[in-house]
Amino acid sequence: MVLTELHKGDSAVIKKIHAPKALKDRFLSFGVMPGETLVVKGCSLAKQTMEIEVGGTLIALRKEEAEKIEVEKES
């Protein structure tokens, strides 16, 4: 499952990032890396942007970026 399939309030563990090196490096600088847990804090209409929290840091992602993050939803 990818990040855009989650809803506000959902939490998930990051499994893999399917992105070019430059974008992966940017994600890593924010703490977005495999094994980390994230929480979806909010979404715009049609999920064009998402706000997630990883390790106490709030991050806004575009839909195109969020689709590159593979996650496993926590129950």
Describe the structure.
The protein is α+β, with helices and mostly antiparallel strands and 75 residues long. It has a single domain, classed as Ferrous iron transport protein A (FeoA) (SH3 type barrels, Roll), CATH 2.30.30.90. Helix content is 17%, strand content 41%. The chain is built from two helices and five strands. The protein has helices at 21-29, 63-66, and strands at 11-17, 37-43, 49-54, 57-62, 69-73. A five-stranded antiparallel beta sheet has the order 4-3-2-1-5. Strand 3 (49-54) and strand 4 (57-62) form a beta hairpin. The longest helix has 9 residues, at 21-29. It is globular. 20% of the residues are buried.
Show the helix and strand layout:
Layout: E1 11-17, H1 21-29, E2 37-43, E3 49-54, E4 57-62, H2 63-66, E5 69-73
Antiparallel strand pairs: 1-2, 1-5, 2-3, 3-4
Strand order, main sheet: write it out. 4-3-2-1-5
- Mean pLDDT equals 96
Q: Uncertain runs with pLDDT below 50, 5 residues or more?
A: none
Q: CA-to-CA gap between the ends?
A: 14 Å
Strand content: 35-45%
| Order of H and E elements | EHEEEHE
CATH level-two architecture: Roll
Would you tell me which CATH topology applies? SH3 type barrels
Structural class: alpha+beta
Number of domains: 1
